[in-house]
Amino acid sequence: MNIVLLSGGSGKRLWPLSNDIRSKQFIKIFKGKDGEYESMVQRVYHQIKSVDDDATVTIATSKKQVSAINNQLGEGVGISIEPCRRDTFPAIALATAYLHDVQGVPENEAVVVCPVDPYVEREYFEALKELGRLAAEGTANLTLMGIEPTYPSEKYGYIIPESKENVSKVSTFKEKPDVETAKDYIARGALWNGGVFAYKISYLLDKAHELIDFTDYHDLYAKYESLEKISFDYAVVEKEKSIAVMRFSGEWKDLGTWNTLTEAMEEECVGDATLNDTCENVNVINDLSIPILCMGLKNAVVAASPEGILVSDKEQSSYIKPYVDKLDQQVMFAEKSWGSFLVLDVVDESLTIKVTLNPGHRMNYHSHEHRDEVWTVISGTGRTVVDGVVRRVRPGDVVSVIAGQKHTIIADSELQVVEVQLGSEINVADKKKFDFDFDAM
Amino acid sequence: MNIVLLSGGSGKRLWPLSNDIRSKQFIKIFKGKDGEYESMVQRVYHQIKSVDDDATVTIATSKKQVSAINNQLGEGVGISIEPCRRDTFPAIALATAYLHDVQGVPENEAVVVCPVDPYVEREYFEALKELGRLAAEGTANLTLMGIEPTYPSEKYGYIIPESKENVSKVSTFKEKPDVETAKDYIARGALWNGGVFAYKISYLLDKAHELIDFTDYHDLYAKYESLEKISFDYAVVEKEKSIAVMRFSGEWKDLGTWNTLTEAMEEECVGDATLNDTCENVNVINDLSIPILCMGLKNAVVAASPEGILVSDKEQSSYIKPYVDKLDQQVMFAEKSWGSFLVLDVVDESLTIKVTLNPGHRMNYHSHEHRDEVWTVISGTGRTVVDGVVRRVRPGDVVSVIAGQKHTIIADSELQVVEVQLGSEINVADKKKFDFDFDAM
Predict the structure, then answer these.
(1) Closest to B293 (Cβ–Cβ): which among A308, A372, A378?
(2) Distance (Å, rounded) from C-alpha B302 to C-alpha B304?
(3) Which residues pair with B61 in a beta bridge?
(4) Are A96 and A197 in contact (CB under 8 A)?
């Protein structure tokens, strides 16, 4: 099976664990098989691999998620990087071209496209496999998964099939209705559109060439910024006559808010938390290193990260977005291609952070115009380079870098460094990158 | 007026803002006249001084509160330090001897004793002045303040006066009753015993000499550890025949739990906090530098400090103690005589803290057997001494101290230092102090 997982934007609805830098799909709150916590993207990836070990998994996403994906899934997963956001049709065209031109998948094979963050069980991925098989058979140009509705939701679009057979031609699509209309649709056998579909590579590439002037993946990537924003529904689905739908009646949840996300948690708490016995329907996700004590709460979610602390009635939590938009705050934690950083302290003219470098990884060779930096190694071993001078470092070693000096650090084992930044203008934009022949070290 | 404020123990009921190191009376949550937040002890001190600018204020407390008292009240306040806890009679005897022998207060003057943490208005301190005047007149050996009960509380002892006059002889004392008995007492004109009383210095010193073999304050201090634990009620009040009580009907609150403390807050929030409009009767005290967002909460208190986060139904918050007892945690923040420290990060074999030194203050000259330390100055100026070598430091300067080296740091202006500790056995007990002639620097 070839599967493309669409990995979306920032997800402020799950603040403070999700923000501009870290998206909800990377929050580790699900208990994996080995007892370790895993994120939505890890859970889905492991589920796909358990259903089809040979599956080619490609994540279609923006550049800023690449580090988190590599950190969480390793190098085995394909990533189709969108140079900028251009809605779903260009993204799917790019990912399909990537599969064909970069991964070498033949054009008569099928591709299944689905969001990266459904909360589902094994049967869902068995259904995706079947969807791919139907698409490869070619009875229709597009084969959708239609989810059997469990209530007359106003949140989803509806697919009206021609028959109530397991696989049927699609009669028509309906936009998000009101509750009464939804009841009527459901009475007519309608299905939720969960944004899951399959097609043959040749079909999609033909569509792409019809609408975009490009030669291959690399050409498409290069001109991506110039493409028109257009949704897959608008560009393809609405114009296509040959569409089939396959019913799916298994468990399916969309974890977009704290309310729905906490429903999917197998344990009340993740992280250091205590609930007294008068708490009812309370979930705590604590990403800080200090304890949380909850007493006498009902139907509440508490989420804490280096970005902030949310304490909310579960139902109210779905109205979070405008409040988070108003919080004007510094990024306190971020995963990078080389590891991660955590802000420890902010004072006037100085910022202290903890930098963790993964083994074998390094920062870019760079300089700052307006700040000095002092590194104190607290664990692991590695090498620093300051203006070309290489030095081995271990815990307790201190390296001072003054403004203008080019510098980098390379981790031989996992390396943790306390970095004190000093200057009157400390900001992330003050960074110049340089080439350095790391292979010659 | 001579006033002795009894400053009690740790107050785990107000965790995470109060703990073994920091007591509730030092939490800054009341809006002072100048708009700055002040603590209970600051509020009470300023109230006393506004009623009687010449008042001699002495705080009777343990050694570990001395730094916080000096930081919050300056050097103007007298402190009677109890070398160890020996209950209220020895504490009051020691404070009275301190007033007489150290402060030189004549023995015919009166002393008013009251707890350090009542939440009261100016009229209360006017009443204390009157209490002192009555004691100085000498119509009774002991003059108590009796608080007019507002409900039949089971939390307080009761004083039954002989008459309903404003000042009356005491007929009898009653231990904490049940509600029905309390109703009966109140019908008989009973008053709450708020632990406030006044006496002449000569009276109390005579009592002390009867029960304890000592010459003067210094002798009493020296043998304090050998004294029997005995309460003032048991040692003095129960045996005394000549006791008067003065009624007080003004506002009086005992702020022992989050529930009662938040009632006294003038604003919903202290620190960085947002409440949405569906929150009702919610208070937030945020001592962290990250934002707290509350949505849809009712009758709740949220308190956050470097020690942890409490989210509690207000009424439930009075049952906090056993839960806090179970939290086995490191002290993350402490006020010291020289300033304060805040733990920024803990990893295996390394601890990073931020040290703030008040201008003109310094650490002890000391060494550690099992850890190295690296100081990076982030603000202010000062001097370091390492094995006798003095060095001036300013922001960006780094001083490395290896295990065994004697070291200290002196702040010329307010000085902030990031200290990275490194070693396999990092603990507060690993500290040897040395003499150093700071005056010769």
Answers:
(1) A308
(2) 7
(3) B81
(4) no
Query: Residues B214, B220: contact at Cβ < 8 Å?
Result: yes
> A354 to chain B nearest CA, in Å?
8
Torsions phi, psi for B192 (to 5 deg): -75, 145
Q: State how far the Cα of B48 lies from the Cα of B25, in Å rounded to an integer.
A: 16
Contact B302, B282 (CB under 8 A): yes
Residue B19: pLDDT over 80: no
Q: Do B293 and A345 touch (CB under 8 A)?
A: no
CB A406, CB B404: distance < 8 Å: no
Q: Is A266 exposed, middle or buried (0-12, 13-18, 19+ CB in 10 A)?
A: exposed
pLDDT band at A26 (very low <50, low <70, confident <90, very high): confident
- Give me the phi and psi of A382, to 5 degrees please: -175, -160
pLDDT in tens, B361-410: 999 999 999 999 999 999 999 999 999 999 999 999 999 999 999 999 99
Residues A133, A138, A141, A147, Cα dihedral to 10°: -30
CA-CA distance, A61 to A82, in Å (whole number)? 6
**Do B21 and B331 meet the contact criterion of CB atoms below 8 Å apart?**
yes
Tokens of A111: 């591709």
In this structure, which amino acid lies at residue B346?
Answer: V
Measured between alpha carbons, how far is residue A181 from residues A147, A158, A159, A177, A238 in Å?
17, 11, 13, 6, 21
User: What pLDDT is stored for residue A238 in this prediction?
Assistant: 86
* Least Cα separation, residue B405 to chain A (angstroms): 15
Whether residue B10 has pLDDT greater than 70: no
Whole-complex ipTM: 0.83
Chain B environment of A310 (Cβ under 8 Å)? 292-295
